[in-house]
Amino acid sequence: MGRPAGAQRQSRCSGEHPSGGLTEPFGWGKCIMLFRWLRRFALISILLGACGGGVSRISADDGRPNVVLIMSDDQGYGDFGAAGNTVIETPQIDAMAARSASMQTFYVCPVCSPTRACLMTGRYNYRTRCIDTYNGRSMMDPDEVTIAEILREAGYATGIFGKWHLGDSYPLRAIDQGFEEALVLKGGGLAQPSEPLENHRRYTDPILFHNGEQVQTKGYCTDVYFDAALKFIEQAHGQGRSFFAYVPTNTPHSPFHDVPKDLYEHYRNKNMKPLHLPVSQRSGKPADDDTLARICAMITNIDQNVGRLFDRLDELGITDNTIVIYMVDNGPNTSRYVGPFRGRKTNVHEGGIRSPFWMQWPGQLKPGTTSDLPAAHIDVTPTLLDACNVDPPDGVKFDGRSFLPLLRGEDITWPERYLALQAHRGNVPARYHQFMIRDNRWKLLHPSGFGRERFAGPPKFELYDLLADPGETRNLVAEHPAELQRLKQAYDGWFDDVSSTRPENYAPPRIDVGTPHENPTVLTRQDWRVRESKGIGHWELHIADAGPYDVQFLFNHPVPAGRALLKVGDVEHAVSVDEDTTSCTFTGLKLPPGDASLTATLTANGKTQGAYQVVLQRK
Asked: What CA dihedral angle connects 170, 30, 128 and 618, to 10 degrees?
């Protein structure tokens, strides 16, 4: 049996600033710096061996639980029968919810990558350099310590199956950040510029990446992820190892052209009107019924796979000591039913940032146990480490805290705190832009819009009493100026804290090229840095080895004859490109070692465009 949460464990999983942040920057102690440096150069196993035999394996018989963490993509708070949805059929998840303990007031970021960074680290994403979903700003700093790293070093088998979205190249990949088994897509999803061109935007039979190697799979993507997760679970159990299986699906994220056909046929003739919102509650254009039917099909497909998971856990006889969590990464990707709330993905109203949090653990948690205290993605890592009886490494502090005692129904003192969320486009966060902060009752926000890096004019704050008005229908800024000032001051403290975590706090992470850990390195538009004046991007690299390299430009359509230019730092190389080609190659190039930016362009007929992808092969 897992050890109950104790006072010492609770304090080690906290370390909070009064604003919800930290009192000191993360990870700059000599010990942690040495540890991360060794890991980066793949020497940690040598060090562990010299210190006494390496990492010990944890047997399932030692009482430590297995963990399966499921997080769907762009599925909203209201997309479940358990949340009152009368259209979308989720019987397996609804049954899980009935068997679970739950946090009833659970928050995530309004968009993908920030939630994932918070979830993996127990820290606000602004500390991790992950501040957006593309343009090189969805990459998480490799010095961050993930829950996968902590559990793996404690002996757990660790696997990810689905969407990572925190970096596609070394040292940013899931396999560089603690996952020993990984079957993932690149970037933010299939049918995006990060996928291999030959995938042709497929969700069915997708090309994925298994432990860093491109593989062709068979089946619908969500089925493929669960197939791989079940195989991983069986293997770990067969080896007598406890496991951490992270299953972040990329469904029901758009596009919606490729969905399970049988389920689409089932839904296309159903009445979608209960999903429609009145004009006063919409955020953006309403979805058409065909799009809703496709989203419903994707969600029910996830639900079917959740049923398969529980069947397999039962067959293996490990259900009682396996934690299974279901949550979502942000609000729904269309304006549709979100229960009692308003808003959708990208919004900082409740509908854009609320997630269910169901945690089934039959051996430890009583079904139906709930807590209304606010919790968030930053709390998941501390909670799971608490449940797994694993301490974080020395020097690692979390913004979150373990809420396991609340799920156990224990009568504990839960200090009130502030929870803050902020996300918008751009390279550097802007104070007061598209944020919310709340305590147990009051919520202050500035819904200035996700799509811009800055907002114009003074902020137009909104203030809500969420206990009396969970739907955020009455703005109380004028009636309660003292609450406005108190929460605004708390937000300022939080923003200043997370913005000063490390030197050059918001500098984008770099991709390493020329290491033995990855060859070739593929650069995609997911990670390029766009120059607004020309709309052409560059990649920020660290070149570990001068080469030689073959560098290939890939284009996503046949291009006219022209001149391709590769610029790395101050060094330029050029080749001629033939008419209607889709690629060109520079051979045997020496690249300047150290930090450098790389730009890859084609100029033809007086116009310049960027390469779609760039492949660097160390020869």
From this structure: -10
DSSP 8-state class, residue 258? S
Say how far apart CA 371 and CA 22 lie, in whole Å. 25
As a whole number of angstroms, the distance between CA 535 and CA 164 comes to 26
Taking only the tens place, the pLDDT of each residue in 125-167 is 999 999 999 999 999 999 999 999 999 999 999 999 999 999 9
Is 375 in a helix, a strand, or coil? strand
Do you find a cis peptide bond into 516, omega within 30 degrees of 0?
no
CB-CB contact of 122 with 27 (8 Å)? no
| Greatest pairwise CA separation for the chain in angstroms | 73
Q: Give the residue ranges of DSSP H helices in 269-403.
A: 289-316, 350-353, 380-388
Q: On the CB side of 583, how many CA atoms lie within 13 Å of its CA?
A: 10
**Eight-class DSSP state of 340:** B
pLDDT exceeds cutoff 70 at 32? no
**79: nearest Cα among 301, 238, 236:** 301
The secondary structure of the chain in percent helix, strand, coil, rounded to multiples of 5, reads 25, 25, 50
Strand 106-107: give its sheet, edge to edge: 354-355, 106-107, 375-376
Residues constituting the chain: 619
Output the six-digit token pair for 105: 């007031």
Mean pLDDT of all residues in 372-394: 97
468/481 Cα distance (integer angstroms) = 18
Look at 39-53, 553-567, 591-605 and tell me which has the smallest mean pLDDT.
Answer: 39-53
* Whole-angstrom distance, CA of residue 65 vs CA of residue 310: 15
Judged by phi (left if over 0) then psi (alpha if -120 to 50, else beta), residue 296 lies in alpha
Contact assessment for residue 59 and residue 240, using Cβ atoms and an 8 Å cutoff: yes
- DSSP structure string for 19-86: TSS-SS-SS-SHHHHHHHHHHHTT-HHHHHHHTTSSPPPPBGGGSPPEEEEEEESS--TT-SGGGT-S
In this structure, what token pair is assigned to residue 545?
A: 């080895």
What's residue 62's pLDDT? 67
Per-residue pLDDT for 23 more than 60?
A: no
Look at residue 420 in the predicted model and tell me its pLDDT. Answer: 98
Alpha-carbon distance 614 to 570, whole Å? 18
pLDDT at position 61? 52
Helix (H, G, I), strand (E, B) or coil at 379: helix
DSSP state of 273: G
What is the number of helices (H) and of strands (E) in the chain?
Answer: 13, 28
